[in-house]
Amino acid sequence: MERAPFKTIQLTIEKHFATLVFNRPKASNGYNEEMGLELLDALHQIASPDVRSVVITGAGDDFCIGMDPQNLEKEIEGAPQMIRRAVGYLNQVVSELRRLEKPVIAAVNGKCYGTGFSFALACDFILAAQGATLSSYHINMGLSPDGGLSYFLTRLVGPQKCSELVMTGKTISAKRALEMGIISGMVPAEKLMEEATSLASYFANGPTLALGRAKRLIDTSLCHSLEEQLEEERQALIAVSASHDYREGIEALGTGKKKPNFKGK
Questions:
Q1: For 215-229, what is each residue's pLDDT tens digit?
Q2: What is the per-residue pLDDT for 70?
Q3: Strand 53-58's sheet: what is its strand order?
Q4: Quick one: pLDDT band at residue 2, thresholds 50, 70, 90?
Q5: Which of 54, 131, 201, 246 is most buried (most C-beta within 10 Å)?
Q6: Residue 184 CA from chain centroid, whole number
Q7: How many Cα atoms sit within 13 Å of 43 on the Cβ side?
Q8: How many alpha carbons fall within 13 Å on the CB side of residue 3?
Q9: What is the model's pLDDT at position 258?
Q10: Can you spell out the DSSP letters for 178-223?
Q11: What pLDDT does 1 receive?
Q12: pTM metric for this prediction
């Protein structure tokens, strides 16, 4: 069911997973301030415990081409002020995405450029259609990266490859992105949403608290010492061992049940 009368996005929640769609297809789903504000609203809804996984995709032929070029052209004289506002919202969106203690899947259906690439990288998994293309692209407009792109991409491919992609602004295919370890999988375009929703459904029926803790542990692993990370893991285990899903998982293991009935609590 539709949850809110958004103008630049669509949000649907069913069967414990949410589908969030960038919905400006005539503008190739270009990001602007209004979209930033609406994404924040949507993410607050998605944070509900009733939502246990998320799919993000784009309406029409593209995922998101980045900052709306028409908006950038219109605001050329007041660019610093406009970018201050738009990227301020963007930063909040990316932070909220990473704070979601549930799996988030990007279903990249076409062009995934600039800010759109940042959105995808902020997700836990990226599935891309075979014909999809990805690019930092900012440099082609005389801009530097936004939305955490330099943070996420450096951690995925290392500083040298990140520099190559960011500083040349070149476009890569989904196949090349898969080879570089940027995306999780590549599927035929007609199967993209089927695969993404199947994965979301799998997670929506999983042990959500444990998945959320695992996501947080992965995020903190590169900034902690071994001893700090070991303690984080211990504290996470203590917390999730008090959950219904832990008891259900152990019972299923002990009784030989084929599949535990996880409730996400």
A1: 999 999 989 999 999
A2: 86
A3: 9-14, 17-22, 53-58, 104-108, 125-129, 185-187
A4: very low
A5: 54
A6: 12
A7: 24
A8: 21
A9: 74
A10: HHTTSSSEEE-GGGHHHHHHHHHHHHHTS-HHHHHHHHHHHHHGGG
A11: 42
A12: 0.93
Residues counted in the chain:
265
| E strand residue ranges, the chain | 9-14, 17-22, 53-58, 104-108, 111-113, 125-129, 133-135, 171-173, 185-187
Question: Is domain 9-204 annotated with CATH 3.40.50.10540?
Answer: no
Lowest mean pLDDT among 51-60, 127-136, 254-263: 254-263
Q: Which two tokens stand for residue 173?
A: 């295919």
Task: Identify the CA nearest to 127 among candidates 192, 60, 211, 200.
Answer: 192
Q: Using alpha carbons, select from 192, 211, 169 the residue that is nearest to residue 16.
A: 211
Cα separation, 222 vs 164, in Å, equals 22
User: For residue 256, what pLDDT is reported?
Assistant: 73
**pLDDT tens digits for 86-126?**
899 999 999 999 999 999 999 999 999 999 999 999 999 99
Q: What is the pLDDT of residue 139?
A: 94
Q: How many other C-beta atoms are found inside a 10 Å radius of the C-beta of residue 53?
A: 28
Using CA atoms, how far apart are residues 259 and 257, in angstroms rounded to an integer?
6
pLDDT, residue 188, reads 97
Work out whether strand 133-135 and strand 171-173 pair parallel, antiparallel, or are unpaired: antiparallel
- 75, two tokens: 């605001």
3-state class (DSSP) for residue 49? coil
